[in-house]
Design brief:
The longest helix is centred in the first third of the chain and has 13 residues, at 48-60. A seven-stranded mixed sheet has the order 3-2-4-5-1-8-9. A four-stranded mixed sheet has the order 6-7-10-11. The chain has helices at 22-28, 48-60, 75-80, 92-101, 105-113, 123-126, 174-184; strands at 3-7, 34-38, 65-68, 85-87, 118-121, 155-158, 189-192, 197-201, 204-208, 213-216, 223-225. Helices cover 26% and strands 20% of the residues. It has 233 residues and is of the alpha/beta class. Pfam families: Peptidase_S51.
C-alpha cells in the first residue's frame, strides 16, 4: 500500500527547510529511525554531502537520522533496504538522469508500490507522476527518458503560480504552458501551489495544506480543487 507525501516545495516563505511539513512528517515516518535521502537533483553549487546535511539537520528535530544514497556502495540495495525515502528538490532533468544512470528508477517504484513511506519535494515530487514533462526546470542534461515513477495517475506542476493581476509581463503564464502540453499529451496535470502537498494512501490521493490546487485536463476548463478532498477525475 503506497504511503507518500508529494509536496510542492521544501521551504515556504518565512520558514526554514521543511519546517512547515515537519508535524506531518513526524506522523508519516512514524517508526522510521533512518531515512534514505536521494540528493540527485541537488541545487546549483551544492554537493551531495552538503545537501544531505541540510536534510539531516531538518529531520533531526523529529529524531530521524538521514543518510544519502551516494554514501552506499550499492544504490539499489540501499533503496530496497530503506525504512523510508526522501527525494529532494533541484533540477528535475538531472534527478531523472541520475535515476536512470544508476539504474534505480524501477527499484524505487517497486518499493514505493510496496509501501515504503516516501517524501518528495519539488523535483522529488515531479517524478511521482506519469512523466516529468511538466517540470519548470531548464533542460541542463538530457535523461534517457521522460518517463518517471507513475505512482499517481497524473503529472505534477510544482511551485504553481497564478497570473499576477495588473502585471505587464508578456511571457507565458504557467497555465498557458500546461495548455501547450495538452496539445500533444493526454495526461492530466495538477498545479500544486507552494505550501500544499498530496497525501497518497494506496490508490487514494488527497490534497493537503491551506491552498487550493488547479487541475488541468485535456480539452477541458481547469478547475480548482479544495484542500482536504480526494482528487478524482
Amino acid at each position: 500500500m503506497k504511503k507518500m507525501i508529494i509536496a510542492s516545495t521544501s521551504t515556504v516563505h518565512g520558514s526554514s527547510y521543511l519546517e512547515y511539513l515537519l508535524p506531518t512528517l513526524k506522523t508519516h515516518f512514524n517508526g522510521v529511525k533512518q531515512l534514505l535521502f536521494i540528493p540527485y537533483a541537488r541545487p546549483s553549487g551544492i554537493s551531495y554531502d552538503d545537501y544531505t546535511t541540510t536534510a539531516k539537520n531538518a529531520f533531526s528535530t523529529i529524531n530521524i537520522d538521514v543518510k544519502g544514497i551516494h554514501e552506499f556502495e550499492n544504490a539499489k540495495e540501499a533503496i530496497q533496504d530503506s525504512e523510508g525515502i526522501f527525494t529532494g528538490g533541484g533540477n528535475t532533468f538531472e534527478l531523472v538522469n541520475q535515476l536512470y544512470k544508476n539504474d534505480v528508477l524501477s527499484t524505487l517504484k517497486q518499493v514505493l508500490d510496496n509501501g515504503t513511506p516516501y517524501l518528495g519535494t519539488s523535483a522529488g515530487s515531479n517524478i511521482c507522476g506519469l512523466n516529468m514533462k511538466n517540470t519548470n526546470d531548464m533542460p541542463i542534461v538530457y535523461p534517457p527518458s521522460f518517463t518517471t515513477l507513475g505512482c499517481i495517475p497524473f503529472n505534477i506542476n510544482a511551485h504553481y503560480l497564478d497570473p499576477i493581476e495588473g502585471s505587464t509581463h508578456m511571457g507565458e503564464t504557467r497555465e498557458t504552458r500546461i495548455k501547450e502540453f495538452h496539445v500533444f499529451n493526454e495526461a492530466a496535470v495538477l498545479g500544486l501551489r507552494e505550501g500544499s502537498w498530496l497525501e497518497v494512501v494506496d490508490e487514494a490521493v488527497f490534497l493537503r495544506g491551506k491552498l487550493t490546487a488547479r487541475l488541468f485536463e485535456q480539452n477541458k476548463q481547469p478547475i480548482e480543487l479544495k484542500s482536504g478532498g480526494l482528487i478524482e477525475f
